[in-house]
């Protein structure tokens, strides 16, 4: 390692200081030293003053490298006045493996991460793929998660399986979750759905909620099944609601059929309410006709609540009629209050109590056509 760093530093640092002129100066100094010691290659001893002059910055860095990466980095900063990222980029240009060994030798891991990020921002993807295998050998933690996450956009394109395995092996932490989010952004939809179940449950839910619109356009049935396979939680119901909202905007009939086939009544309720709300915003007559075909019970109540929520924005009387058709007293009361609240938000200038004047005096079952 020591001889490798010496060689890399001897070539790379001059590239930062005016490559050609500095290279010639260092080469001359090397040849002079080699001649003195009768050696083929240069072994750098403690720098000596010649003719009352300090050793060149390059030789000071070379000498410091004998004491390890930290000493070399400090010498570079002092002698050349450069940022650590400049130093590492020059090393990586000539010997990537030597650069990674140099970074491994740094005791300050925050500084090591700074250097790696500088390299990642500077070189094209084709030069950086070897960093993937190196990153997976790092100890679990912030450093490894940050490097893997930064590599994801182009790692996925070149080796999706390797990128997936690396991201899933990061454990659970905010940095690991961010790396997996970047991974999923790059994967094809079908591959996303096969990868999501291998992630921590909390991340699965977050992603399925976020990607509902994308899945609804491509593989809505598979996405519905993926959500249904997750542990029961409020977030799971929110995920199915988000998926169905986007799906219903394109094909409400298919969305309703898929949700009705689920075995989990909680998901059915969340899905049908979302479908009814979206469908009624597009075609309230057809949405109402569909709801009136459902048997009395929790599923019809949920769908009626969805229509009431949507209509309440502009037609409180129609919304309250739909809410009044809900059979469960608690659900009916909740839908009525939600409709009033939505109307007040839409009409902030209306006088207090104005919404009561818009409530119809009948509680009969609404017709398919909005009143």
Strand content: under 5%
| Classification by helices and strands | mainly alpha
Report on the biggest sheet: none
* Discrete helix count: 24
Describe the structure.
Helix content is 73%, strand content 0%. The chain has 371 residues and is mainly α. Mean pLDDT is 75; it is low at 1-23, 33-55 and 357-371.
List the defining traits of the structure above:
single chain; 371 residues; mainly alpha; 24 helices; disordered C terminus
Topology readout:
Layout: H1 2-16, H2 19-37, H3 57-65, H4 69-80, H5 84-94, H6 96-104, H7 109-122, H8 125-128, H9 130-136, H10 142-158, H11 160-168, H12 174-186, H13 189-195, H14 201-210, H15 212-218, H16 220-228, H17 234-250, H18 252-260, H19 265-282, H20 284-291, H21 298-311, H22 316-324, H23 329-346, H24 354-357
Sum this structure up briefly:
With 371 residues, the chain is mainly α. It is built from 24 helices and no strands.
């Amino acid at each position: 390692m020591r001889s490798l760093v010496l060689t890399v530093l001897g070539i790379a640092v001059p590239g930062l200081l005016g490559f050609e002129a500095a290279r010639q100066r260092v080469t001359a100094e090397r040849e002079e030293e080699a001649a003195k010691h009768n050696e083929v290659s240069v072994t750098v001893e403690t720098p000596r003053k010649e003719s009352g002059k300090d050793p060149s910055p390059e030789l000071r860095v070379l000498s410091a490298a004998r004491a390890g990466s930290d000493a070399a980095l400090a010498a570079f900063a002092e002698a050349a006045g450069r940022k650590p990222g400049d130093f590492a980029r020059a090393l990586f240009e000539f010997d990537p493996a030597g650069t990674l060994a140099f970074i491994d030798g740094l005791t300050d891991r925050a500084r090591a991460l700074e250097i790696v990020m500088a390299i990642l921002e500077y070189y094209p993807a084709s030069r950086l793929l070897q960093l993937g295998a190196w990153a997976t050998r790092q100890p679990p933690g912030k450093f490894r998660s940050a490097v893997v996450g930064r590599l994801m956009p182009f790692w996925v394109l070149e080796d999706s399986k390797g990128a997936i395995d690396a991201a899933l092996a990061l454990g659970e932490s905010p940095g690991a979750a961010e790396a997996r989010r970047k991974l999923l952004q790059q994967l094809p939809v079908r591959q996303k759905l096969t990868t999501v179940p291998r992630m921590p449950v909390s991340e699965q839910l977050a992603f399925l909620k976020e990607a509902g619109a994308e899945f609804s356009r491509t593989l809505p049935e598979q996405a519905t099944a993926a959500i249904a396979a997750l542990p029961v939680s409020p977030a799971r119901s929110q995920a199915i609601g988000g998926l169905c909202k986007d799906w219903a905007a394109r094909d409400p009939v298919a969305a309703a059929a898929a949700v009705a086939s689920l075995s989990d009544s909680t998901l059915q309720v969340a899905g049908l309410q979302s479908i009814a709300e979206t469908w009624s915003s597009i075609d309230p007559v057809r949405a109402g006709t569909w709801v009136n075909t459902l048997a009395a019970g929790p599923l019809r109540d949920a769908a009626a609540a969805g229509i009431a929520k949507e209509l309440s924005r502009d037609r409180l009387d129609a919304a309250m009629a739909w809410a009044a058709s809900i059979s469960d007293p608690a659900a009916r009361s909740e839908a009525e209050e939600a409709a009033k609240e939505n109307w007040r938000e839409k009409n902030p200038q209306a006088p207090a109590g104005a919404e009561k004047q818009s409530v119809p005096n009948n509680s009969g079952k609404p017709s398919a056509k909005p009143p």
